[in-house]
Specification:
Length: 350
């Protein structure tokens, strides 16, 4: 006669609640981080040294520029430019948001909406106040031509979102499912994954939705650099952070990245913190680089944006080297199947 086996003791209520509470830490921190980042970046857009100009060398033009500057204070950075050609060149170099051409009957504001539609809206509001006092309408001339599928210029931001999610979500899968692979192999997989992400991005943004209607190869190359930087940084961090990697990637490449990219508001409409991040964060490097390619003929600081992406890619390589050295000393902890599964589920859910 066989002896019945005793079933494993069921976990106590306290143990179950503690286990649940630990797993709720990550989504709650994500909620807090997203609330702080997005509301902090976007809750009160106000101009800060918005660069505009009055066209002309006459005393009247200089007086108008001084009057606008005196009333606006730090909100605007008002200058005068000699003529229309000089104003257009500064707009194409992205050194100005708008240039006002005074005229008693047909005042004109020259802008480049490809730089930032929201910044142009702010500049238009400034000079509409001027022409309203004259009792004449303001004519707005845009030097850039929007893509067929992106009349507002916001499509590139959503391409940035797609590239980012595809990149950082892949990190958890590579780190968990590829835990038994060497760092070199994981790095090669990461490069291949970033290539796939960038191809998906440019195909959907180009032939499918026509957000990118020319220079597809250049925008794709920027997308691959951007994605590869994220993936390599994530693979390296996974060695040290394990189950906290997804949260760290969210902080780096969503909370701080989307908010500082310039896709919604450029730095002249943001507070000092997010405005400063725009100068060197990777999302801004991709987005502003793509804008330079599509709307400004590859000028307007494209080289600097490429350098930003390369620096982040090199940072990813450095993190991976550090991780490989750490693992080479036998310090890499081995994840349980349950931990690996939880990581992949978190990445998919995010």
């Amino acid at each position: 006669m066989s002896t019945p086996r005793n079933p494993a003791a069921a976990p106590t209520l306290g143990h179950s609640l503690k286990h649940l509470a630990i797993h709720l830490i990550t989504p709650l921190l994500m909620c807090l981080g997203m609330a702080l980042a997005y509301q902090g970046a976007f809750h009160q857009p106000e101009p800060h040294h918005l660069k505009v100009a009055v066209v002309g060398t006459t005393p009247q033009a200089q007086g108008l520029a001084q009057a606008i500057q005196g009333k606006a204070g730090d909100a605007l950075d008002v200058r005068t430019v000699d003529d229309r050609a000089a104003a257009e060149q500064q707009l194409r170099d992205r050194d100005l948001v708008g240039a006002f051409v005074p005229d008693a009957r047909n005042p004109e504001l020259i802008v480049a909406k490809g730089n930032s539609d929201t910044s142009v809206v702010a500049a238009t509001a400034v000079f509409t106040n001027v022409t309203d006092r004259q009792g004449v309408p303001l004519h707005v001339t845009d030097l850039t031509t929007p893509a067929e599928g992106d009349p507002t210029g916001q499509g590139l931001f959503f391409l940035l979102v797609a590239l980012s999610i595809g990149s950082y979500a892949s990190v958890a899968v590579i780190g968990a499912a590829g835990a038994g692979l060497s760092m070199k192999v994981r790095a090669l997989v990461g490069v291949a994954v970033s290539l796939a992400v960038s191809v998906i991005g440019i195909v959907t943004a180009g032939p499918v939705f026509h957000v990118v209607d020319h220079d597809l190869a250049a925008v794709w190359a920027l997308g691959w650099l951007y994605s590869a930087g994220i993936v390599l940084i994530g693979i390296g961090l996974h060695t040290f952070l394990r189950k906290w990697t997804t949260l760290a990637m969210m902080v780096l490449f969503v909370m701080l990245n989307f908010t500082s990219s310039g896709g919604v508001y450029r730095p002249e409409l943001q507070n000092a913190f997010f405005g400063a991040l725009h100068g060197f964060w990777t999302g801004a490097g991709f987005l502003e680089g793509a804008r330079s390619v599509l709307y400004f003929d590859g000028g307007a600081g494209l080289g600097g944006h490429v350098v930003t992406l390369l620096v982040w890619l090199l940072l990813g390589g450095a993190v991976m080297v550090a991780a490989a050295m750490y693992e080479g000393r036998g310090r890499r902890p081995v994840e349980t199947p349950e931990e690996a599964e939880e990581e992949m589920e978190e990445a998919v859910a995010v």
